Amino acid sequence: MATYSALSFFAGIAVHQAIFIRNDWHLHAPSIVLVHLLLPLCYPLYQAYHTQDVDFLPLGLQTLGYGSAYLIGLLCSILTYRLFFHRLYKFPGPRLAAVSKLWHVWKCRHSLGHLVLEEWHQQYGPFVRTGPNELTMFHPGAAELMDNPKSMRSDWYDLIHPRASAIFTRSKAVHSVRRKIWDRALSQASLVEYYRRFKHQIRNLDVCLADSNGAPIYVNELMYWYAFDNMGDFGFGADFGMVRDQRWVEGALMMRSALTLLGPFSPAIWIPRLGFAFVPNLGKVRHWFKMLDFADACTDARMKASYPSSNSNHKCENVVNHSTESANPDVSSIFIKEFLAGPQDQHSRRLLSGDIATMVVAGRYPRSLITSLTSLHSPYVRLTTTSDTTAPSLTILLYHLARYPEQAARVRKELSTVADTADARVLATLPELQAFINESQRLLPAILSFGSRVTPPEGLTLDGTFIPGGVKIGAPRYSLGRLSDAYVRPHEFIAERWTTRPDLIKDKRSFSPFATGRMSCVGKNLALAQLRLVAALVLTKYKLSFVDGNGELVEDDMKDQLTANPGKLVLQFKPLE
Ligand code: HEM
């Protein structure tokens, strides 16, 4: 018995040293769990087969003993390696975080990941070991290092594997091909057309604000509707009129619920993957899959609308009605054309679905698609990613406009010189407006902490600190926006730092709301256009005021759930004299 226990213990060490210490294992998490649950059964089964009159109780206890010895060996080896021999062992950070990502997950249980990281920054300095093989950088040059062409995407981007999209792939080749399609879909010529459509959407918002007659408006909600409508327009060539009808849809709420999973679990992506594999029908995991179903059906619906004879996998005839078809190009039509021109195999289909889903979630769902989808029980699942980035950015911007009226007045003055404040191209040339948006994104970015890369094998150096190769790195925008090494009076909202007071910015590299380089945000121009249009409308026509206090809840209740989910904002929009 003792010999077998010792053998089991050493087997645990051997498995760690020979297998788990190498490579990434997140994609195999479900199989690893299964093997570890099933393998111990082999021993009692073997004994039962070879022995007559087996007494199962002692045999079971014996098996449990060997299994425990194996696990103790495995854990001892993991602990010793991570604490004393890992290439990051000299970096400061919480000891428990160095031992396991579970500590980080636990700390993020209230979806306040951005504050957890900021607390660690204050405690441990600019380079913090936030995981066994993870370093989080709080340094003005960190964003640039992340976007270094040598850095690779981390395991996080396998979240939806085997499905993929421009953002959800670690393969440079796949990314490059998908990125080219995105670039085509959002070319300068297409942007002119999308900006023309934005004029229509901003008119709807104006009507909605005017109709409120100065009554309190739940801004978070309205901005989600507005972002939906815009996405419906440039994404699907459809007018879904959510602002006009002032109505939520079930699918959108489902998505919000599904994304909350990522608040606590984003630091350890193998946990959601275990959930997807073992408990797909449980609570929010089920919502996650419904969200994926929706993304698939969106793809099919759009395809069916433009190409009725296409061979679509889903029953989607009713998802898009004829009124949603458009003669004008839209983002999804470019992706669908690309798909139909190719082999139309499972791989291409997964890519199509992944990229359209990215776009849908970036701007939220079109209503008519969602309402139809609630009755659509597709057996397929796909993944949606990026996020609802535009809507929270709009809410945060309105919060800042109401909170800092003197600085907003400067933008208003600048806007008074503009003939057409619904022309996104003209708005893009206004420095005061851009400065206000920059300052808003600096202090409360839509992506608070998400984004990670892996250093190349030769490692990388930042300001004299060498980061070894093969290490996962992160640079949370929430903290980078508040670095005293990068900004003077970093916690104050001072829009002039982007215009007349450049001395208030010590290091511009710290500001990167859309990232830079080959993996930067492809929707940046569209997103900025929406922010500028809303600010211009509100400032030229309305006086903003809080109903209670100063809107502190926006920041105090903000959640970090892949994207920022701001706390409740209620404002009154009274027509200017
Ligand atoms: C204020 C709104 C937005 C913000 C702050 C934002 C920010 C970002 C950031 C930081 C990334 C890089 C993520 C990474 O590190 O992996 C990114 C990627 C991406 N974004 Fe956005 N985004 C916004 C709106 C949009 C919109 C409206 C769209 C779609 C039209 C979009 C589509 C994408 C895509 C496809 C990628 C992946 C690009 C690639 O991998 O080549 N984004 N975004």
Automatic annotation (TrEMBL):
It holds the Pfam family p450. The keyword Methyltransferase does not apply. It comes from Bionectria ochroleuca (Gliocladium roseum). Its cofactor is heme. Its main location: membrane. Belongs to the cytochrome P450 family. Keywords: Heme, Iron, Membrane, Metal-binding, Monooxygenase, Oxidoreductase, Transmembrane, Transmembrane helix. PANTHER family: CYTOCHROME P450, L-ORNITHINE-N5-MONOOXYGENASE (EUROFUNG). The keyword ATP-binding does not apply. It is found in: Membrane. This is Uncharacterized protein. The chain crosses the membrane at residues 27-46, 66-85.
